[in-house]
Prior knowledge:
The chain is of the alpha/beta class. The chain folds into 3 domains: 6-50; 71-102 and 118-284, NAD(P)-binding Rossmann-like Domain (Rossmann fold, 3-Layer(aba) Sandwich); 300-389, ProC C-terminal domain-like fold (Orthogonal Bundle), CATH 1.10.3730.10. It has helices spanning 6-23, 28-49, 58-66, 83-100, 115-118, 134-143, 158-163, 177-181, 186-189, 204-212, 220-223, 255-266, 279-306, 311-330, 335-342, 348-358, 361-380, 386-389; strands at 74-79, 124-131, 151-155, 167-170, 194-197, 227-232, 242-248, 269-275. It has an 8-stranded mixed beta sheet with strand order 3-2-1-4-5-6-7-8, sandwiched between helices. The radius of gyration is 25 Å and the shape is globular. 25% of the residues are buried. The model is unreliable at 1-17, 44-70 and 104-117 (pLDDT under 50).
Amino acid sequence: xIARSGYCFESYKVLAIRRLLSxxxxxxxxxxxxxxxxxxxxxxxxxxLNYPDVTANPRRCEQTKMSSQEHGxxxxxxxxxxxxxxxxxxxxxxxxxxxxxxxxxxSPLPGAPTPGEERPQSLPSRFIACVxxxxxxxxxxxxxxxxxxxxxVVQNDNLAAVQQAQVVLLGCKPYMxxxxxxxxxxxxALEGKLLISVCAGITAEHMESALHGAVPTxxxxxxxxxxxxxxxxxxxxLIRESMTVIGITEPPLPPQSKALVxxxxxxxxxxxxxxxxxxxxxxxxxxSSPAMFALMLEAAIDGALAxxxxxxxxxxxxxxxxxxxxxxxxxxxxxxxxxxxxxTPGGCTIGGLLVLEEGRARGTISRAIREAxxxxxxxxxxxxxxxxxxxxxxx
Length: 395
């Protein structure tokens, strides 16, 4: 009998391949191909044996497994499933697949949480992505086709999708929030549920007002209203490298709800909790700064191109240089100290830095973050055309 344990099966797989190759003499290329084929077959067989019913349809078994008691049995709906909604869903679905997949038996490091402590007791097993157009529906289906058995895409039927869900992610454009949440019956459909917003600048009070016509004075625990959570992530969620800031609610979220929110955004990167009055600045730093960093990177590449470097190689070098510097900062180094370490007397680095200082790069970048913060706060108040009505000053 073949053991179903990930550790035992890995040992069996390696032993089988080694025995087979030791008994046969093939060319080097054929040996590599055979090794890969055997490994792939063993992995597929292992997954097949781990299905609840090996005689059933594999896709149906996968869905049954993800709906097991271990991972909960509830639905998560995304209202306005655009680029960010797709990225978040993809991160969640990939993480669920990793949880369901075979894992070797291993002991956690001293002081490290066990896998069971890293995630909440209950996780979503079904998903509904809400969009308005057929083109958007096609885009979502194309991006998440591997998970089509548990992801349902609906058009212009937000209310029914929310009624079926226990957790709702609000991912529409900020100017659409009033229409989406103000739909008749939406407040009742959200009662007792968790509403997570990733809409830039939209405050919890704004969402409460859109749902109920005014900001309620009682707490959600007293009247059964939905729990509203405000979060901000960025486009790096597409590769599960986002930085997400989550607003600390008042009253605090129940432990299991907080664990679920944390787990959702850890599926796409790192997470930090901050008071709600820091959310607009966090929107600028986390949500807007990647575009600013891309501009800086593009400028460095263009400078190298002007001096004769090929564009492809210049982009590769600049990208890795920026990545290496961020890695050093993440390891605990202070940016100013890193800058000082690179500068040598009479060197090229100090010469280049002085050009940036002459161009007021430091103040300009800082001002860009400040401006993005102000714009985010105005968007949350429903002000349109903010960037076109603000005057740029040098003060």
